[in-house]
Hints:
It contains six helices and 15 strands. It is α+β, with helices and mostly antiparallel strands.
Amino acid sequence: MPPPSRLRVKVPSEAAGLRLDRFLARLPEVGSRAAAERLLASSSVLVDGSEAGKSARLAGGEEVELDRPENAAPLEPQEIGLRVVYEDEHLLVVDKPAGVVVHPSAGHETGTLVHGVLAHGAAGGEAERPGIVHRLDRDTSGLLVVARSEEAHERLKRLVQRRRLERTYLALVRGRPRSRAGRIEAPIGRDRRDPTRQSLDTDRPRDAVTHFELVEQLDEYALLRVRLETGRTHQIRVHLTAIGLPVVGDPVYGVPEPSLERQFLHATRLAFTHPFTGERVEAESPLPLELSRHLEELR
């Protein structure tokens, strides 16, 4: 018998062909994709006694064992110093500060962007991340679009899937680009040896395309304007490191910078066709003070 904190479930025949994460999300004890992903990230899920990736396909008849999820605390609006740069009845564009996690997860149950946008009517999508269509890393600042209804969430998701949400970043890297502009096309997925990292060395590659152009060369550093065509986890940081231009201040993929407490990566521009009105929406965010000061010191 499993301990009380563990749950065992037999996969029914009608669930054959489902991905493991989607099967877990359908369990009433789990209840959402976000909760399923947290369980899988903690390596607490076993299929017939062995670990399996979230995209593993079930055949039916397997025994799945998992930690019994704890009841999540109800989401409540919180003040996190959020700047709203555009809003209407359907959506809003917000400027996320560095250090803020986008949605609740293990170790980040409060103080997330989701808590901040709840006061602005964020809605649609999963219950644990209402309104969220795309994400930024915790230590990446800048612009995100957030839905205010289920229909808005669906339409914005389609924009992302069709690569029509234009996302532009400023990144300070160490090194000299070999050309003034370039396109990086290299699939990314969870690293084969370190599941906490994304990598080109992966068993589950997903298409990833990044464009960059040189804004300014500063001796051993370069300021780049980067545009995402796809939006994989840690895509910019992984891609730039892969071509020998690691992001300054990035402790995982880049190079440490003692005088900078965060990675130099900022989502500076967001543009898209409004999914309801058809009008063009363009929003910009200047470099935060700590990044502009660091850049000025290098100059």
